[in-house]
Amino acid sequence: MFIGSFNHSLDSKGRLFIPSRLREDLGERFIATKGLDRCLFLYPLSEWEIIDKKMRDLPFTKADTRAFVRMFYSGASECEVDKQGRILLPQNLRDFARITKDVVITGVSSRAEVWAKEEWDRFNQEAEAAYESMAESVAALNL
User: Fold this and answer.
1) Domain boundaries, the chain
2) Alpha carbons 132 and 108: distance in angstroms, whole number
3) Which of 75, 90, 105, 115 meets the CB 3.0–4.6 Å disulfide criterion with 34?
4) Which CATH number fits domain 5-116: 3.10.20.30, 2.40.50.150, 3.40.1550.20, 3.30.565.10?
């Protein structure tokens, strides 16, 4: 399970250190793709296979489904952790998430997320303001 948040920076070559706690669950190879809210999603290969199966079952006759699946897969990249615990984040994913230097890596249950620090700070500030009302909505789902 992915939990916690970690502050790191890209090096001059676009490499990002992945904390050992997250590497344990991600594995030495994993998938990075465009996430939601301007972040990147990192999935272990086992979780990616589950998502792939669900995507294949979506109704491809719907235009919004086709568009989402195209964006999701076309932005995906297999990452491999080097001996120093770093991955090379592809330029297209850095551009999508507006990542230039400082990042926040968060654990979110079955995936990790990579955020530009400025985007995370903005999102976090907005979410904290609505945290209690979100909790009431989620609690209504009987989780």
Assistant:
1) 5-116
2) 19
3) 75
4) 3.40.1550.20
Which distant-in-sequence residues (6+ apart) come within 8 Å of 54 by Cβ?
none
Chain length of the chain = 143
What are 78's strand-pairing partners? 31
How does pLDDT run across 38-88, given as a tens digit for each residue? 999 999 999 999 999 999 999 989 999 999 999 999 999 999 999 999 999
**CA gap 12, 7 in Å, rounded:** 17
For 54-67, how does the pLDDT look when each residue is reduced to its tens digit (9 = 90+)? 999 999 899 999 99
In sequence order, what are the residues at sequence separation of 6 or more whose Cβ sits closer than 8 angstroms to the Cβ of residue 11? Answer: 86
